[in-house]
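Module 6 notes. Inverse folding takes a fixed backbone as the condition and produces residue identities as the prediction. Think of it as a translation problem where the source language is geometry and the target language is the twenty amino acids. Below is one complete input and output pair. Work through it position by position during the lab.
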């Protein structure tokens, strides 16, 4: 056995104490220290009851509470008859060897007949007694005292508390259950009638009584009651509000204040009310008194009803001896530390869950189960599982398989990891053949070592890790045909699948004109290879200069969708024509399609523009544009088509008369001009003669020059007139 407080073994010669609830054994000094510490921690929860109340202490295992007076003070045997029982190798440890004689439970008047023994509690009473059934109707029978209650299975038939019905249950123990039936019942004041269970005949209707009281002035205010109404509460002797004077007045009159000082004690408990006798509660005490703060450091004048708390923080250390109190105006009874302990327990697995406390932490209450399958159970305190030898279990190991097999090989339950699986590997994935190797899901493989930083570092031992290795590829040969079904060859199962034999495919392409020239390949979605990648080589319709833009295809080529760019017949406008329409049209339609529908810009030999719409070939010379033709004298004019403009218009008599008049007018003008010229020559001659008649050399020279000039002018004039006359 192990003491759960100190985590050490309980020996035969050591003083122990046994819990009366869970019957666990503890060292006597350990349980005494546990009881003192538990009571101290419980009493330090609040400031008011710290160290004043007597708190119970719990069992370390089952937490059953014991009063402080039940704290063990001496070492006794299990039955409590012998103090400090000596160790006897022939008796149970810590036993006195006498008859137990404890009163059996449930109490039957008999005592335990076993020798002094530890818990669990004493066994049931084994004595035989003659008892009747629970309802008392059957004949008494001999039965064990611990199980003497028995039922005859007859109806009980006892009268229920409602005094109307009987119990319908079979023979049973204890009192009969309440009547389950429902009946009409009146309330206590007999005013209302309601359907209620028979088990609760007394009920109130929640109506105020309202009956007139004995005074005749007031009514009863008690809710639904039976019997006589109570007397009027205002008819007895009443006192004034402060209670100093008493008077007997009718219940209809109020007692007036006496006029004296109230002097009732205020809520502070130190002063009395200084007001006159008044109704209602007294006011709050407002007298100023000198008060000390709670910690006793400072004092100050304060209203009596207020508490004075200073701002100084308590520097004392709390009971945990780790943290300061830091409470404002602390009176000295610092509360226990409210922080969590959090220190690592002796088991090195858990942390202390208790609040912060002084001294060492209590041992870890956790237990560790060491058996893997649960067949051989061994519970040890947390922290001792490393030093405890695991129990031997005869059961089969129940751990689930860690490989792909559904079950492990049968072996006994054991601590630590299971041995590696040696079962044959299951069928390979993707085929129906079996893997030739044994299970290789958990194979020890040497891990990669870390590269050394330099020659001064020593290489570490190689570490091994468990790793699942893949199955080797299946090598079973399977006859397989190539993609084009040219040949059949054996192929290993792991590479099972159709292959390329290297020959040309030879399948007809979708165009129907060529065969596949690729190397033997797989065809998906049918028996045809991919579409032909060559261009269409079929002849085009006559007149179409464009090649077929589509790939090689079966049947006729689609109509040409391209356009032709050409000039119109007049070579001015650029036209874009559909190749299909142009090649399929007749000659007349082609001429119409090649026209820009504008007037021909060419000029005829006559100089006029061709009046026809854009047309091919040479323009017609029959110009129909109207031109005006005049007679030789230009007096008569007529309009003719341009192609007939070579005709001559003869002059008539009017033209001849007009020519004569014009000739006469010209002759008259000529004579007049000659006469005018003759007159000017005569005047110049006369002027010359006058100059010749003047004297002097200079005059002579000037005269000669003027004479020469006159001769030159005269010669020029004659030449001009001679030319005019010749014309």
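Target side of the pair, the amino acids:
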């Amino acid at each position: 056995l192990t003491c759960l407080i100190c985590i050490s073994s309980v020996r035969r010669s050591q003083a122990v104490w046994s819990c009366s609830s869970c019957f666990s054994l503890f060292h006597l000094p350990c349980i005494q220290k546990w009881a003192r510490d538990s009571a101290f921690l419980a009493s330090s929860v609040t400031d008011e009851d710290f160290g004043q109340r007597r708190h119970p202490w719990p069992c370390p295992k089952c937490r059953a509470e014991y009063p402080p007076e039940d704290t063990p003070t001496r070492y006794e045997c299990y039955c409590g008859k012998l103090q400090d029982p000596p160790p006897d190798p022939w008796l149970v440890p810590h036993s006195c060897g006498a008859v137990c004689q404890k009163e059996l439970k449930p109490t039957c008047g008999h005592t335990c007949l076993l020798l002094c023994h530890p818990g669990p509690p004493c066994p049931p009473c084994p004595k035989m007694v003659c008892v009747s059934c629970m309802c008392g109707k059957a004949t008494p029978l001999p039965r064990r005292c611990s199980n003497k209650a028995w039922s005859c299975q007859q109806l009980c038939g006892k009268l229920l508390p409602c005094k109307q019905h009987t119990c319908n249950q079979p023979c049973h123990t204890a009192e009969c259950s309440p009547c389950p039936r429902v009946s009409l019942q009146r309330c206590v004041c007999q005013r209302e009638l309601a359907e209620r269970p028979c088990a609760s005949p007394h009920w109130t209707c929640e109506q105020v009584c309202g009956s007139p009281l004995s005074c005749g002035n007031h009514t009863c205010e008690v809710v639904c009651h039976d019997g006589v109404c109570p007397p009027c509460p205002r008819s007895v002797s009443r006192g004034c509000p402060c209670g100093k004077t008493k008077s007997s007045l009718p219940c209809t009159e109020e007692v007036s204040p006496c006029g004296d000082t109230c002097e009732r004690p205020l809520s502070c408990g130190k002063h009395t009310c200084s007001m006159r006798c008044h109704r209602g509660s007294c006011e709050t005490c407002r007298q100023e008194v000198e008060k000390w703060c709670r910690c006793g450091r400072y004092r100050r004048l304060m209203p009596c009803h207020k508490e004075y708390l200073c701002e100084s923080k308590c520097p004392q250390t709390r009971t945990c001896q780790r943290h300061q109190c830091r409470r404002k105006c602390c009176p000295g009874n610092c509360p226990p530390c409210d922080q969590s302990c959090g220190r690592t327990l002796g088991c090195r697995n858990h942390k202390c869950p208790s609040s912060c406390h002084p001294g060492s932490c209590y041992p870890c209450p956790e237990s560790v189960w060491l058996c893997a399958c649960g067949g051989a159970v061994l519970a040890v305190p947390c922290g001792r599982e490393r030093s405890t030898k695991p129990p031997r279990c005869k059961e089969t190991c129940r751990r689930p398989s860690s490989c792909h097999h559904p079950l492990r090989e049968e072996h006994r339950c054991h601590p630590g990891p299971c041995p590696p699986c040696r079962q044959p590997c299951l069928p390979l994935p993707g085929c129906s053949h079996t893997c030739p190797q044994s299970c290789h899901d958990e194979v020890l493989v040497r891990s990669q070592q870390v590269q050394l930083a330099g020659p001064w570092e020593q290489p570490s031992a190689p570490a091994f890790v468990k790793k699942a290795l893949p199955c080797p590829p299946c090598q079973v040969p399977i006859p397989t045909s190539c993609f084009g079904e040219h040949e059949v060859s054996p192929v290993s199962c792991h590479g099972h699948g159709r292959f390329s034999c290297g020959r040309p495919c030879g399948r007809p392409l979708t165009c129907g004109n060529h065969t596949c020239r690729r190397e033997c390949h797989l065809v998906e979605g049918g028996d045809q290879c991919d579409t032909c990648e060559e261009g269409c080589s079929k002849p085009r319709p006559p007149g179409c200069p464009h090649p077929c833009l589509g790939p090689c295809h079966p049947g006729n080529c689609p109509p040409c969708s391209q356009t032709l760019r050409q000039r119109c017949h007049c070579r001015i406008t650029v036209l874009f024509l559909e190749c299909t329409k142009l090649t399929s049209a007749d000659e007349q339609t082609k001429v119409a399609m090649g026209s820009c529908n504008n007037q021909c810009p060419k000029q005829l030999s006559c100089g006029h523009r061709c009046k026809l719409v854009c047309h091919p070939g040479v323009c017609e010379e029959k110009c129909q544009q109207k031109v005006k033709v005049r007679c030789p004298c230009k007096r008569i004019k007529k309009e003719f088509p341009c192609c007939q403009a070579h005709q001559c218009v003869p002059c008539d008599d009017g033209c001849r008369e007009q020519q004569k008049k014009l000739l006469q007018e010209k002759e008259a003008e000529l004579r007049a001009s000659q006469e005018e010229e003759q007159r000017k020559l005569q005047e110049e001659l006369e002027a010359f003669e006058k100059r010749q008649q003047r004297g002097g050399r200079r005059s002579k020279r000037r005269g000669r020059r003027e004479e020469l000039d006159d001769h030159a002018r005269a010669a020029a004039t004659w030449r001009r007139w001679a030319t005019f006359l010749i014309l």
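Reference fact for the lab report: The longest strand covers residues 182-186.
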